[in-house]
Every structure is written in structure tokens, then in C-alpha cells.
Amino acid sequence: MNRFWRVGNFWRQNPQRSPLIEVEDSISLRVLVLALVVLGIVATDIAAETSFSFWALPLSVLGAIWSYYRRRDRNVAVKFCIAIGMLVALGAFFGRLVGELNDTRLGLAELLIQLQVLHSFDTPRRKNLGYSIVIGLILLGVAATLSQTLAFAPVLLLFLAIALPTLVLDYRSRLGLQPLKIKNEKLNQKNSSTLNFKFLILNFFLIVGLGLAIFAVLPRFPGYQLRNFPVSSAIPVKGNFTGRSIINPGYVRQGKGDNQGTGTGQNQTGQPGKVDNNFYYGFNSQINQNLRGEMKPKVVMRVRSQAEGFWRVLGFDRYTGKGWEVSRNEDVTTIKRSPWSYQIFLNRPLITAKTQEIVQTYTVVADLPNLIPAMAYPKEIYFPTPMIAVDTENGLRSPVELSEGLTYTVISEVPYRDRTKLAEASTKYPQDIKKYYLQIPPEIAEKVRQRTEEILANYNQERVAKSSKSLDSPYEKALYLAQYLKQRYSLPQNPLDLPYLAEKDDLVEAFLFKYKGGYPDHFSTVLTVMLRSIGIPARLVAGFSAGEFNPFTGLYVVRNTDAYAMTEVYFPKYGWFAFDPIPNHPLIPPSVEDTQTFSVLRQLWHWVAGWLPSPVTGLLNNVFETIFKWVIRAIAWFLALFSQGWFGVLTGLILATTAAFFGWLGWGQWREWRNRRWLKKLPAMESLYQQMLQWTTQKGLGKHPAQTPLEYARVSYQHHAPAAAEVIDEISQAYVSWRYGGHSPNLQRLRERWQELKKTTK
């Protein structure tokens, strides 16, 4: 961006219109640099699914050709045009920032591509080509952050293969050597004028192998540890959004199966039907579990999360005999966001359990219903629509379908699962919980209750015989019943083997007493109803499992076949916790766990505490706990400033800048104190000599380690005033005589001359 200065400087340095110096004539270097830039642009297009290459590549090639043929000309008009074009590109970038409030990576990449295209028309020198190399590398880095598949890997390898000979040619150009020649015949390694491909190939495989080895041994995290909130561009919403309707393309509505879904599943009755091939049947306000068939696997979204979890979509409270429904589907709350931010704050439930904040970023790969997947207990969501809706089961709903390419971020306050505390939870449930989450059809209520109590009684009898603890809490009962269904009931070997339920059949009754099994979601339905039959509030919740974690991209790849339903159980003061009774699934779905980062330090402290008296140990524990608590509160308060609008951001920046300034000031004072302490410990002559070297280093002429003191003294006459050079020479001579000759210097005279020199130079 300093082209105006370069033009003026050129006219001052070239009044006779002489050719520019340091012109780069190597065609091979220019071609390789252009290839690196092209790869950076192509990588950005592949990762972000954009089309910058259609206009950027031909213009870059044209600019490279123009720049080569005009490399010895002044090109003043071109420089002015390039500078104006860069200013226009910068203005357009700031204009785009209004619509991209959170994730500006793609906008920055586009700005960089525009600047590179303009810059390619003026690259006469090697330094200019170096700028293009850096731009290509930056574009590759941006593509790496945007990429969600391994399609980026071949571009990365190709970039490395081209970068190696480019760096060789660039280094030779810096040294002023003749350009290398590339020969087709057998290469002679002793010929310095020939590009050694064997050497480059060997280094290529060495770098790739070393990189993979480092990648393999690095600690693996399932997601970013730093908060990052990518969000798609704003989506306008037409009409009045109430949040009451659920748009699932897998359900046929109003007899139109072409444009609103091709599935044959019936969403309002329990009549037999087939499962849609692409869309999960459970994402609707009413679901029918009297369906048969299976979905064709396809990727529907990719998730970057700080912890593995269940991507919750929708909850159901009313059991209908052959499925479920949301009984309070009309009772939803719409929440609008600020026009200046994508951030939407959600109401947080009153729970006392220990929680952890988990950031998740979702990228939709295939069309999904207008239900927003998120981990349990979301507290903030960064979504591109002006508003969203929240239903009574804490499900999030969008005004539009989640279409391909949509990106949003959710911050959830996920509770830890403490088995001891949950087992001690009260059984005094609020009235609104008992009203909606203990409902069972009266036709099967008694029969299911007897079967459930029989299972628990048999367990208690076995435990009494073995002198073990009996089941006396809702948590332990839910855990055992889920495990019992896993072990005693089975899935059909063929999805079509299970017959349809008759009109008067009940799904839970047929599962327990007739078929001894069912589809995966049937297990969760049965567990939910069994818990309700013995007075434990429960509901059915549908969503996606974590999916397959890709260690190369750090993303969870989620498919439509990862969607299923499981049971959530309510515990007063602790909230809802999930149980998974489906065979081949973990009994407890993955969620947050205590980190073991400082486990060694904790073990060491326990060992030390074992040698200390109990009062001392308790005092130290309280002190450490108080310090840690205040530090955490201070950090949390500082981070919270950035979520309080522009005033909070400015306050946080001011505090951070002030803290950085005082930190820098303290660091400088500490280094100065250490230096003074070190000088005091040295012999007097050594201390004076070191002070002189530090002073000359500050003046811009430091002593090279290979120089002797006398050589350095001779060089000082070329860079310092004669009076200063004489003092430096005298101190150096005295130091050598003292150090190597054993002569005692006249320290008083040397110090007086040294003080006079410092006073005159000030």
C-alpha cells in the first residue's frame, strides 16, 4: 500500500530515467511464484466453495506477463492505477464487514486476492515476488481454516512441492548468483548450475514424513480451545414468524410430495408407512413409530465442538400409543437478535449442577428441517436469521429450513453428570413436571407398571442374596432399566422383519410382551414409558449422535443415519439427563468430563498433604481455593466484557492495553535490575567493558561474537565520532591488557572518560 511513496522516491532516485536496479530476470522463479499464488486462490475456492478463480487466475497470469515485459520501465501510470484499485478494494471490504459481523475470514481472503491481482501487474524485483509468495502462503492458511474435508490435502502437498524449488531460486537470487538451468538429461549433482530434482524430492518426502510424525504425537483435541463464532451471511425472513410450524421435507403435506418431501411417513396418525430415504422421521411435532424401512446414509452436517456430545434437536412429552407428539407446540417463545450482532441470548434454567461452557459450530451440508441442533442447555446462539423460537422442551427453531452451506455457532452450559449427587436427588417433583412427563395411556399403565416393578424387584432380590446395594433412587433405577432393555431385548436383523402394529396395538405393550424387541427408537420409547409408570418424570428427545470424528480436520462428520431418539429423565435442581437403552450404544451419551490436565500436580499435592498436619492442609487448601476462585472470577469478568456491546469491548480493550503496557514496563524494569545485578558481580574492569558494549549496541554497532576486542575497537572509528572511538579503543586496550596480560588498569581514569563520553553523547 506504499506505492505512492515508492513513485515519489523513484523520481528522486532516478532523475535521468535510468533503469530500475535489482530487476529479477529469472523466468523460472516468476513462473513458480505465479504457481504458488494460483494454488492459494484455488485452495480458497475449494475450501470455501467460492469462484474467485474464474476472474483472479486469468488476471494474475496477464499481470505476471505484463510485469515481466515491463520490468525495466517506470510504469508510473500503472502504479497510480494499482494504488487507486487497492483503495477501492479496501473500501469494498469495509462495506462487506457490515454483513459479516462475526466471521470475516472469507472477506479477508477476497480482499487479499484482489490486492494480489493488482500487485501482479507491478513485480519488477525479487522483493515484489517475495510479497506474492507470502500472499500465496496466507491464502493457503485461510483455506486450511475454512476446509472441512480432505480435499484440501492434495493442494497442500502440491503447494509444498512447488515451494521447495521456489525457495531455492529465491535464495540464489538474494545471493546474486546466476539463474539455475533445468536440464532433461541425467542430473549431475556436482553441477551447481543445474536444479537438483533428487535433492528436492528427498526433502519433500522428508518434510512430509516429519510433519506427519509431529501431527501424530501432538495432543489431540476434539475442537477449538479458543472461542470462534463463524456464522453465515444474514438471511432475511418474510412474513410473521411464530415458531409453531416445523418444516421437515421428509413429511408429505397437503398431498404434495414433490416439493415438500417425498417420504410416505404419516405425521398425524399411527397408520403403517415407510421411512423416508433421506430425512429422519423424528424431527416433527408429531411422529409415528409404526414405520418400517431405513435411510440411505449421507452427510448432513459437520460440527466443530470443544467436547463430544449429543446434538439435541427436539423433545416430546406426550405418548400416543404408536408415537409421540409435542403437546404444547403452540406455546413457543420467539427471541429477536440485535441488528448489529448475530448473538441471541437464551433463557437459562435454574439448576445447581456444576456446568461447563461448550462452544459448537455447525455447518449444514445437506438440507435439514428448521430445527436447530445444539448441545443441552444452550445459552447463546449466533444465527443468521433476525429471530429464532424456543419451545417448551428447550428445542430451538429457525424461521427457515437449514439449507446447505448454513453455518451457525451455539454456546451451551452443559452440566456435569455427578452420579452420587443425582442418586441423592429429591423425588418431590414440581407440579408442571408431573403434569406433562408422567402421562401414560390408561390402557397400558397398570400392565407396564407391574412389569417394571417386577424387573426391579428381581434385581433387588439378587442383590440381597449377594449382600449388595439395592436400587433406591430414580437415577439408579433409570440406569438399570436402560441396561436391562439393552441386554434382554433385541433389534430385528432385517429392518422389514418387524410387522406393522395393528390399529388397536400399543407399541410399548407389543415391544415388552409380544415381539421382545423393536427398532432403535422403540427402545427409548419403552424406557420412557416404563419410568413414567413408576413415577419418574421422563421424556423422549431426538437428535444426532456426535458422528465420526475426523482427526485431520478436527470436525465431527454427522450423517442422517446418526439421528435417533433416547430418554431424558428429570432430577429436581439438576435438570434433565439422558439415558440410552439402544443396543450397541453407550448407556450414557458422551458429554463433558473433568479434565486431567494437572493430574500429576494434583497427585504431588496429595502426597505432600499426607505429610502435613490436618489443620495446615485444610488452611492451604482454603488459601489455594480462594486464590484460584478469585483468578477465575477475574478472567470470567474480563471475558464477559466483550459480550456487553461496544462499551464492553472498548472497556476490555482499554484494560488489556493498560495491562500489556504495565507488563511491558515491569518486564523492562526487571531486565534492567537483573543486568545491574549481573554487572555488580563482575570484576571492575569486566563490568566497565560490558557497560561499554551495551552502550555501543544501543547506538547501533554491537560487537559480533567472532570479533576480538581490538578488532571491534578498530571498526568503531568508522562508525563513531573520533572522541567516542578513542574512549572505546582505550577501554578495549585496557580490558585486553587486564584479561590476557595481567596488567592493572587505571580504573579511575577510565571511568572518568566513560562518564564524560556518556554526558557528551546525551
UniProtKB/TrEMBL annotation:
Keywords: Membrane, Transmembrane, Transmembrane helix. The keyword Chloroplast does not apply. The chain crosses the membrane at residues 27-46, 52-69, 76-98, 128-146, 199-218, 634-667. Residues 512-583 form the Transglutaminase-like domain. Residues 252-273 are annotated as: Disordered. It comes from Nostoc favosum CHAB5714. This is DUF3488 and DUF4129 domain-containing transglutaminase family protein. Signal peptide: none annotated. It comes from the Bacteria. InterPro entries: Bact_TGase-like, Papain-like_cys_pep_sf, TgpA-like_C, TgpA_N, Transglutaminase-like.
